[in-house]
Amino acid sequence: MKKAVSMMLAAAMAVAMIPAIPAQAADVSITIFNSKMEIQSQMEEMAAEYSAEKGVDVEVYYSSDTVAAHMSTRYASNEPYTISMVDAKDIYSLGPDHAVDLADQDWVKETTQAITVGDAVYGFPVCVEARGIIYNKTAIEDTLGEEFNPEDYKTNEAFAGLLDALKENGMDAPVGVMKEDWSLAGHFIAEVYETRDDVDGFVASLHDGSSDLINDERFNTMLDTFDLLKENNYAADAPVAAVREDTELYLAEGEVAFMFGGNWDWSVLAEYDPEAEMGMMPIPQDDDAYNTKMVGGGSKYFFIDNSDNTTDEQREAAKDFLNWLVFEDGGQEFLVDTCALVPAFSNIELEVTDPLGKSVKAYADADALIGNYNYLPDDHYAKVGANMQEYLKGDIDRETLAADIEAYWQATAPVEH
Amino acid sequence: MDKNKMSYKVSQFLMFGGISTVLFLGVVILPFIYGLYLTFTSWDGVSRSKPLVGFANYLAAFKDIDFWAAMGRTIIYSAIAVILINIVAFLLAYLVTSGVKGQNFFRAGFFVPNLIGGIVLGYVWQFVFSRALPAVGIPKLLGTTESGAMFAMILVSVWQFAGYMMLIYVAGFMSVSKALMEAAQIDGCTPSQSTWYVTVPLMRASFVQCLFLSITRCFMVYDVNLSLTKGEPAGKSVMAAMHVYNQAFTYKNYGTGQAEALILFLVCAIVGVTQVYIGKKGEVEA
């Protein structure tokens, strides 16, 4: 009897194993490097489905290392991924050496965000991200007892009035400020360079020392708004000790109403299941040319490896995968619904699900996005970020900050592009 | 068989030391030489070309104010941490060899912090400094002042390494023969005198070892630095190793970073070897 049972068990197990063998043996297998931590599990599920559907074996990898550092170790060991997701600046540094030219692909016509170096298209934009002030509409309305319409608060004065009204009505400190250097320098100060007509010319003047930052209108306008955020910061007594997760939690729960950030912050805010209505608005400032627009554009780019470690079949499969993302229902749903990204392609008409992404999409559709400046030197966020932290703490004044930023640029070699 | 023949000597050496020699060459010497080569290039870490630039990277390293600031910070940190680590470790070792109740339990307990990886340990203490202590009214140390961050780093390092160094001191205490202690006491030494004049001089080897280990570890500190302070506030707690990593990988000046790493290695080696040389010179045999 025992023997019969064990035989049956063994037979059942053998049968159970059959579906595990792929229905069609995959001829080609490709690897994808994902550098967006928040979508790793979605990527893995998608890879399994895609493999089953298309007969191309897809494997997804993630590393918490700096993207550029991770790429350099993979290339140093001759083990590149077929498709790698990197930041815009990495496409400029890696593309000419390591990427396949994708200019002949159909999706190029559907986007304004692809990265072109010379005549070659190297970067496939994964999503659109933009920066602005994130607001908690419900918290503001509950505190003030009246409807909040972000378009009414375009100027510094209007925004200051709103903050004062919030304080009078019991919200002690209505703002959260992230102390992370990528936020302070890479995102906030970067807007001083980005929001002007001749960005390259201005950066060149910073390099050669002919700029006059302390008397620069854009610098002062942006810093006026920053001062407002700084004064109303809930962590004003120890701003550089503020923890990002705390700040986002307070925002989600409505203890603070505003935070400078971007639509990527939704992945953190969503962790706290905010019931509040949230959204993003441009940075309020006394400059009508820029207080109705957000700064942003393509973020995270795929490139396909061109080395001998990747076969032509793999490259074809990789191109098919990118086309699937843009042109097939499964791919579009994956980007927009599963990963909650704002797609960079005009042919994708699915509605964006997350509230911050919705705001960004609205501004993008209205052509109110100012492009990112993708050529900041690699040490910009660390060094200018340190200066900004000192300013945030109140250790230095605006003159010193301007002088420090100018000193940084003058000591740094221009990034060729 | 002629035991003086070269071939015999070589084959004997290969039999006993061959594998480790090959491994040592492969994972230490060759990468070191390759790293040395990279200090003469302007490689960015990813591109295919590695143009030779002569001594430009060393020049850049000497001109890099941030690097020397980080180095100065590292030296101050190491000096204070090394002294504290060894004082605490010695006192702990004295305690757990003096025959207190449950001394084996204490030995294990003091050693545990060393078993927790530096990264985890940094996060644990970050929680303590930025949440637990402020909750009972102690002001935040991290992210406020330079000295606060430094103090936190030193405290965590002492907590981490003292248990490990304690083990070496314990071995030192145990190696001193009981007969000598008895002889000293018969000659009229008080217990504290016999410890100070007999045991401690005979433990000199332990001191040399512990100092060497703690100096090198403090100079090369990276993991605790990364997870505890991340260089904040405003880059004022970046230690030398972290600056080297940033320079090479984040700022993409691989050659300069490598050159700075070499300078850090030399400083650390000179301090460490000098310390061992001086320490060994005065060693006494029982």
Topology (elements, then pairings):
The complex is a heterodimer of chains A (417) and B (286).
Chain A: H1 2-17, E1 28-34, H2 40-54, E2 56-62, H3 67-76, E3 83-86, H4 88-98, E4 115-117, E5 120-136, H5 137-144, H6 156-168, E6 175-176, H7 181-194, H8 199-208, H9 217-231, H10 244-253, E7 258-262, H11 266-269, E8 278-281, E9 294-304, H12 312-327, H13 329-338, H14 355-365, E10 369-370, H15 380-393, H16 398-410
Parallel strand pairs in A: 1-2, 1-3, 6-7, 9-10
Antiparallel strand pairs in A: 3-9, 4-5, 5-7, 5-8, 5-9
Helix pairs in contact in A: 7-15, 12-13, 15-16
Chain B: H1 6-38, H2 56-63, H3 65-97, H4 103-115, H5 118-135, H6 146-175, H7 178-186, H8 191-202, H9 204-219, H10 223-228, H11 240-250, H12 254-281
Helix pairs in contact in B: 2-12, 3-4, 3-6, 3-9, 3-11, 4-6, 6-9, 7-8, 9-12, 11-12
Low-confidence stretches of chain B: none
- Tell me the CATH superfamily of the largest domain in chain B: MetI-like
Number of contiguous helices of chain B:
12
Question: How would you characterize the largest beta sheet of chain B?
Answer: none
The structural class of chain A is: alpha/beta
Number of domains of chain A: 2
User: What CATH architecture label of the largest domain in chain B applies?
Assistant: Orthogonal Bundle
CATH class of the largest domain in chain B: Mainly Alpha
What is the CATH topology descriptor of the largest domain in chain A? D-Maltodextrin-Binding Protein, domain 2
Overall 3D geometry of chain B? flat
Report the order of strands and helices of chain B.
HHHHHHHHHHHH
The overall pLDDT of chain B, averaged over residues, is: 86
Choose one word for the global shape of chain A.
Answer: globular
Largest sheet of chain A: 10 strands, mixed
Which range does the strand content of chain A fall in? 5-15%
Percent range for β-strand residues of chain B? under 5%
Gap from first CA to last CA of chain B: 41 Å
Query: What is the domain total for the residues of chain B?
Result: 2
User: What distance separates the N and C termini of chain A?
Assistant: 78 Å
Poorly predicted segments of chain A: 19-25
